[in-house]
Amino acid sequence: MWDPEGSLEILKDVRRHLFHLAQHLQSFIPFLSLFRSLRGYRWRWVWRDFIAGVTVACFHIPQSMGTGMAANVGPLYGVHLTFFPGLIYAIFASSRHNSIGAFAPSAALAGVGVARTRKMFADPFMANLTYSELVSEAGLADVLHQHQGIVVGFTFWAGLFQLAMALFCLQPLSKILPFSVLDPFNCACSLQIILVQIPNMLGIGLDRFYGLNKHINLIIMLFQQAKKAGGLDTLLAMLTASITIGFREFIQPSLFRKVKLIVPVEFILMVAAIGLSYAFDLSGRYGVRIAGNSPGLVRPIGIPSPTMPSFEYLPHSFFEGMLAALVSIAVCLQAAKPSSRKHGYKVDVKQELVALGSANLFSSFFACFPASSNIGRVTVLDSIKSRSQLSTLFACLLTGLLLGFASQTLHYLPLSVIATIITLTLAVSLKLFEDLPAVWAASKLDAFQWVLTFIACVLLDVEWGLLIGLGFSLLRDQFLQQLPHWVTLDSPEASAPPSKVVVVGSSIDHHNAESLVESLLKSDLLEPNRDAPSRLVRHPIIEKVIRKRRDKPVPTIDLSLVSSKAAQSATIAVRTVPADRAYLILDCTLLTHVDAAGVRALNYLMTELVKRNTGLWFTAINGPVSTVLEKTKAGSRAALPLAKFAPSVDEALRLIDQEVRYNLTAVPDLARRNAIEVSTRPENTENKTTEAFWEVTAQPETVRETTGASVTSDTADNEMPSGDL
After folding, report:
1. For residues 98-124, average pLDDT
2. What PROSITE patterns has UniProt attached to this entry (predicted)?
3. What value, to the nearest 5°, has the Cα angle with vertex 554 and ends 550 and 559?
4. CA-CA to 650 of 20 to 30 Å: which in 96, 501, 634, 659?
């Protein structure tokens, strides 16, 4: 029998569970950036995202097939990059305009890594670093299987490394590659892929060269085999290049101005070439090299099933995987930040590491090489006014339909057409050479690093060129960090005693602490003005005292009191504050960090300043520096016991001026006390002499009259002023 109350309780329980589930999902939404970006999404933007996704997919498919050939896994496995990584990246990415997939540096690194690892397993005792091989048609299946196992290891390690960077908050590693290393590396990788594709454009099957001087050997072999070029392959390449360049330069700009639409002419030419190849049997009749004869299509095609990475090649894949992880995140951020600044949203580096690492780790189970973004695809998405990563999902949908239902048609695609498309696409990257004069004008060192990285990538190999550029960058940064960075500000002309203001322009740590202190001590900043002469009269006792006190801190006023008889032939040294005391003010406005080595160096600086009778002030300390310096104001174990602090340079100068004025007004009072002591001595009272007294005080005539009147009144009362002499 139906129980209404029981059913009501069940509905309440279901509602309560759904409410808790919604709360958990809401707390998880910030981690899923796609849902967070869709909070203010409007339905009328879906059409724009759909058009943008389809357009980018049409651009992406020919590019991915070309980079798949460069990575030695074949054209079809390049197409996988347009499907699997994008599915994961679109969900986790904080960038709304990045299009993840194939990019030239990753393909070049994968190709080099495949060659190195395969050479290691094929002939480990080969001494020659330049290795060539010609694979027969019968062995294409085995070659493909081996290449897949090696490439999957690169992608697997790249994904794990990027996730580890996000887990351990190692986001600064994403900026370890400066533009003066990344740009020439990108140019070298693009040039390498172009050189590899030129034989395919001409219908020539060349040996594959790896290692040192491979580009030079490839060019030499190309000229030697030029007579074997296929006429129809070359004609297809020329037609593809002519139509693509003409459309890009003349038709596309006017078309975009009128209808705001970008036509993927490369994809249209690829479809037309497939139709011509199938209709006229270009491979069977005229010997045109097609994709069906390449390693990428000898296996059954379609959406592949997931497979575990081969543990045989994983230990040998970590090096290229780590390099691919660093390069891919650097390129991804470089492509994402311009559009984020334009549209007013922030790209979270940690979230990008999570998204890119998850995408690479997921796609490693589907025979994909490491993926990243591309500035060209980002520009296309931005031009069509894409609003979110839904455009990437639409692109993945189109690619999935192609892989599932139309992948058989890729069998008839002429290699000369796809090689021409990828060559023209990567030729745009060579425009980075136009930035070299501006880099040279801005920094000769950056320009040298740019050229060094490019030459190393061309002559040695792309991975070694990247390591050389990165190593030079790290050594340069280490050298620059050890240089002292400080400037001197003009101190007020009326400042007495002299005060020097120094602005510290870098951190004070183990890199530069020693050089900073040495440069300050060697400069002429700490030479106080000692124009006021001391009154010196030779006497053995006074000279002995001066020698003992020469290396000790000099007090504000040093009056040596002797008897009247000895004073007639003695040296009385009277030092006053303005003539002998100086101050050094360190402006810490730009100071960001001080470590234990920096505190030790500042202690040494204060020790040397005490010997030179110079005071040290710290001003405008902020942030973490205050916790290191301000806590040293007091205490028996203070790290900087003699340092003084002020909120600003003006305040420090005011406090110094007060200190100087106080010491100056104290001089007549001390002279008065000394005069009372000398005048009340028995020998001076009996002889009624005052010459020895004024030798002790060394005061001018005007001060003598004032002091004399005070002495008369004080001696009449037989009272001594209180205070320390």
Report:
1. 84
2. STAS
3. 95
4. 634
633: CB partners within 8 A, 6+ apart: 643, 645
Alpha-carbon torsion (333, 264, 33, 305), positive or negative? negative
What span, in angstroms and rounded, lies between the C-alpha atoms of 673 and 139? 109
* Alpha helix segments (H runs only) across 228-310: 231-246, 252-259, 265-280, 282-286
For residue 674, give the H/E element and its range.
Answer: helix 649-679
Q: Are 181 and 469 in contact (CB under 8 A)?
A: yes
Same domain, 402 and 493: no
pTM of the entire predicted model: 0.76
Which of 417, 449, 475 terminates a domain? The answer is 417
- 532 and 645, same domain (yes or no): yes
The pLDDT of residue 47 is 92
Of 494, 489, 497, the closest CA to residue 530 belongs to: 497
Q: Which of 17-26, 307-316, 421-430, 576-585 is the least confident region? A: 17-26
Decide if 440 is inside a domain.
Answer: no
The arithmetic mean of pLDDT across residues 93-106, rounded, is 91
d(CA 286, CA 206): 19
Distance of CA 401 to the CA centre of its chain: 40
What pLDDT is attached to residue 681?
57
pLDDT, position 490: 67
- Burial class for 689, CB neighbours closer than 10 Å (0-12, 13-18, 19+): middle
Q: Is residue 463 a contact partner of residue 320, using CB atoms and an 8 Å limit?
A: yes
Torsions phi, psi of 555, nearest 5?
-70, 175
For 502, list phi and psi in degrees, rounded to 5.
-120, 125
- pLDDT for the residue 668: 53
Do 382 and 505 lie in a common domain? no
Q: 543 pLDDT band (50/70/90 cuts)?
A: very low
Domain check: are 283 and 378 in the same one?
yes
Ranges 230-234, 520-524, 551-555, 686-690, most confident: 230-234
Q: List the 582-587 sheet strands across, edge first.
A: 486-489, 499-504, 582-587, 614-619, 644-646
Chain centroid, CA 435 distance in Å:
20
Query: Residue 323 has which token pair?
Result: 């390099």
Q: Are 696 and 559 in contact (CB under 8 A)?
A: yes
The token pair at 412 is 């008839």
Residue 70 lies in a domain: yes
Q: What is the mean pLDDT of residues 28-38?
A: 66
**pLDDT, tens digit, for every residue of 220-247?**
888 888 888 889 999 999 999 999 999 9
- Integer Cα distance of 484 and 517 in angstroms: 8
Q: How many alpha carbons lie under 13 Å from residue 417 in its C-beta half-sphere?
A: 28
For residue 472 the two structure tokens come to: 């030079």
Residue 498 covered by a domain: yes
Torsion of CA 599, 604, 609, 612, to 10 degrees: 180
Residue 462 lies in a domain: no
Q: Which two tokens stand for residue 426?
A: 């990567």
Cβ atoms 317, 154 nearer than 8 A: yes
| Dist. CA 48–CA 143, nearest whole Å | 43
How far is it, in rounded angstroms, from Cα 334 to Cα 392?
18
Range of the domain at 251: 31-170+224-417
Percentage above 70 pLDDT, the chain: 71
DSSP letter, residue 384: T
Query: Do 275 and 156 share a domain, yes or no?
Result: yes
Residue 640: pLDDT over 90: no
Sign, Cα dihedral of 410, 414, 418, 421: negative
Q: What is the CATH number of the domain that holds 678?
A: 3.30.750.24
Count: domains in the chain: 2
The mean of the pLDDT values for the chain is 78
3-state secondary structure of 372: strand
- Angstrom distance (rounded) from CA 694 to CA 567: 10
Strands (E) in 62-206, as ranges, are: 131-133
